[in-house]
Amino acid sequence: MTSEAVASCGRCGSELEVGDLRCPICGLAVEDVKAVLPPEREKARVVRCDNCGASLEYSAEARAPRCAYCASVMHVETAEDPVEQAEAFLPFTVSPEEARGALRRFLKEEHFFRPGSLASEAVLHEASPMWWPAWVFSAGARVSWAADSNAGSRRSAWAPHAGQVDLMLREIRVSASRGLTKGECERLAGPYRLESGEEAPRGPEGARVERFDVTRSGARRQILESVEVVARREVERACIPGTSHRNVHVAVALSKLDTTRYALPAYVLAYRYRDELYRVVVHGQDASVVLGKAPVSWAKVVLVAAGVLALLLLLTLFLTRT
Amino acid sequence: MNLRCQSCGAELVVAPELKTTVCPYCAAPSVVERAPSLDRPLPTFALGFALTRESAEGRVRHWLRTRNPWSHGGLARALLREVRGVYAPAWLYSARAASSYSASVGENYTETETYTTTENGKVVTKTRTVVRTEWRSLRGEHEEYVPDVLVTASRGLANVELEKVEPFDLRVLARYTPALVAGWVAEEPSLTRGECLELARKEALERVGRRLGGFMPGDSHRDLRHETRLEEESLELCLVPMWVLAVRYAPEKPPLRVLVNGQSGEVYGRVPVSWVKVLLTVVLVLGVALGLWWLLGGRG
Fold first, then answer.
1. What is the ipTM score, two decimals?
2. Are the C-beta atoms of residues B243 and B53 closer than 8 Å to each other?
3. Distance (Å) from the C-alpha of residue A268 to the closest C-alpha of chain B?
4. CB A251 within 8 A of CB A102
5. Cα–Cα distance between B293 and B300 in angstroms, integer?
6. Helix, strand, coil: what percent of chain B each, to 5?
7. What is the DSSP string of A114-166?
8. pTM
């Protein structure tokens, strides 16, 4: 949330944005920049309508101060919750030709279960360059954890353990895309060069920008959820002793959370093979990252299954004879 | 204090615990501005009313009809009097809570044991599996923010009453401006900041305790103790919307006070119990029990 950031929270150091009344992480009130000086002595004030000058009252129907005469509604400062917008666009460095080349290489890859005619019969149906939305955040996190593990267990298979660890989460990438699957986003997200971010989109003609389809509060919820997921993963990987664990609980106190909204380039290609469409995603900055589905040759599968069954049968026959 | 209506110049009399008034001559709504003090600062936030008077009354009527069967019979036909929309002062507290805890964590395990029993007149030995619990001690640290603790700042509104009509949706919090309370009753804080801070700390500690209860590993736990330091506390004055009503359900009884959350419509009041109904129920239950006893075994 770099471009819109106004200040950072006085308590947890997280970035605040225009329109925040309280820190979204720790709840500290954001100081009012337009605060008027308090009165020296007591006085009664009539709030007037900006439009017609009549006295104004708060209306529960309008959920805002409303003038009874001209019905104009006065704006009050509430926490804003706008729909998210991308702040940085990464440029395409893979051209459409290179993307098509990557698809051809993908189709030529030798996999046993693929039909042999895939590379020759597959026809490119559609190639659409697009930017998919993602958040990239960095934060410090003090993670408290408690879990059962087999380490130190006595009569029961489990023993309780607890600990606290300070993590630096750097450039954690969270997908906001609805067009790409979660798995696709996870595998695409790594190879992007975030420092190449630009203010405007730059790429092949006709490239689409997938919008962030969430509001700021929804985005924060998703980011906090992934903070917990990352923290839990880290705790399970590095902190809990022993070889197996259960009942893992984590509590996270975040500090200095800062988030940037990115638009990340990728090609979504579709090819047709024997009346079926298959989707392939090619990374927009690294043509060696190709994710996709390929048809399965059922004839080969059936053959292999039959072979395995025959082998098993032979084996049992052989074993029962001896 | 010399307060004049800005509309017609009439003299206004405002009680010191009120923030708003309506001029008795020209009906102009005024908001009183006073020099802030530690116990009575300017509010930082306000939550506007989202529930109109009519819907608040509707909620209360429904609530009165659906009370328990032993409540006073007059409730269903009661009159709603003095329906007032009040902005009640409350403190919004937040802090970072760092706890050291210790507990006994129960880890279950199964054991096979042999036992003897009599089957068809013979003594036989059998085995069975039983679940036993091994208690292990656990110590640790826990740190989290406690962001949204709301406590009353008004002597007129007990903190328990506020808790009964909570929660308020704090996402729609607005920065305080006089226009938000114009035309409504708005109260100044009547409890000191210190009293409220104690109340808020107590509530925050209770919340931490509940969080820690859910944080414990194992199959069960006991003797959970925690020592919690509340650090970097903040306290902001906030005005919350509340419909206050007096319900007249019997001419000889004092009216029942009912509160309605002006945002969510949650209703709270201490329902009067009809002792006649309770007595009748007790007599009835005793009668039935006695009758059953007489029918089933009493005679034999």
1. 0.81
2. yes
3. 38
4. no
5. 10
6. 25, 45, 30
7. S-TTHHHH-EEEEEEEEEEEEEEEEEEEEEEEEEEESTT--SSS-EEEEEEEE
8. 0.82
* Nearest-Cα residue of chain A relative to residue B14: A44
Q: What is the DSSP letter of A114?
A: S
Q: Residue B292 half-sphere exposure, CB side, CA atoms within 13 Å?
A: 6
Q: Are B29 and A55 within 8 A, CB to CB?
A: yes
Write out pLDDT tens, residues A190-242: 889 988 888 888 888 888 899 887 787 878 888 888 899 999 999 999 999 99
Asked if residue A152 has pLDDT above 90, the reply is: yes
Enumerate residues 5 to 64 of chain A having a beta carbon within 8 A of any beta carbon in chain B.
11-12, 21-22, 25-29, 32, 38-47, 55-58, 60-61, 63-64
Please list every residue in chain B whose beta carbon sits closer than 8 Å to the beta carbon of residue A79: 171-173
Could you check whether the bond before residue B167 is cis, i.e. omega within 30 degrees of 0? yes
pLDDT in tens, B203-237: 999 999 999 999 999 999 999 999 999 999 999 99
Burial class (CB in 10 A: 0-12, 13-18, 19+), A179: middle
Selected residue of A74, A144, A166, A216 to mutate for chain B interface (largest B Cβ count, 10 A): A144
Measured distance CA(A43)–CA(B6) in Å, rounded: 9
